[in-house]
Design brief:
Number of domains: 1
Distance between the termini: 16 Å
Number of helices: 3
Number of strands: 8
CATH class: Alpha Beta
CATH architecture: Alpha-Beta Complex
CATH superfamily: Fumarylacetoacetase-like, C-terminal domain
Structural class: alpha+beta
Shape: globular
Length: 159
């Protein structure tokens, strides 16, 4: 099992065929997104070229628990992001290192159409687990926490 800490965008209104310059008017807020993948299943799916089940298992896409509104984040490309497993830092990066901007992502997929409340993931920050062993804490599941911080606000979750 691998985890990928991502920033996700929550759209506040429906839209289709808009530019990166227009994208900001569709952003309602941001939420932390943990893209969990069953790599053993994914390796088998790679043989067929179809990826579906490896990322679609119940509980494999925890997000939230809070949506931070767009006006609370001065610059979504200026967030320090971190994921911990049982207290150990597994991912630490910064949203400024994204290879494309959030408006570019939203505009690129806008021909498919968005509805209010849609969540769009922006992709992982550096440091994907890549099948790193997850430390056990007794017989229960590992404790995972993730956060994003800017100079004006912070949001985090512990599971």
């Amino acid at each position: 099992m691998d985890y990928e800490l991502e920033l996700a965008v929550v759209l506040k209104k429906a839209g289709k065929h808009f530019t990166a310059k227009e994208a900001e008017q569709y952003v309602g807020g941001y939420v932390i997104f943990n893209d969990i993948t069953a790599r053993d299943i994914q390796r088998n799916e790679m043989k067929s070229g179809v990826f579906s089940f490896c990322k679609a298992i119940d509980s494999f896409c925890p997000l939230g628990p809070h949506i931070v509104t767009a006006d609370e984040i001065e610059d979504p490309h200026n967030l320090a992001m971190e994921l911990r497993v049982n207290g150990e830092v597994r991912q630490r990066s910064h949203s400024s290192r994204m290879s494309v901007t959030i408006p570019e992502i939203l505009a690129h997929y806008s021909p498919m159409g968005y509805s209010a409340g849609d969540v769009v993931s922006t992709g992982t920050v550096s440091g994907v687990a890549r099948s790193a062993p997850i430390p056990k804490r007794g017989s229960s599941s590992p404790a995972m926490s993730w956060s994003a911080r800017s100079s004006r606000s912070a949001f985090s979750v512990i599971r």
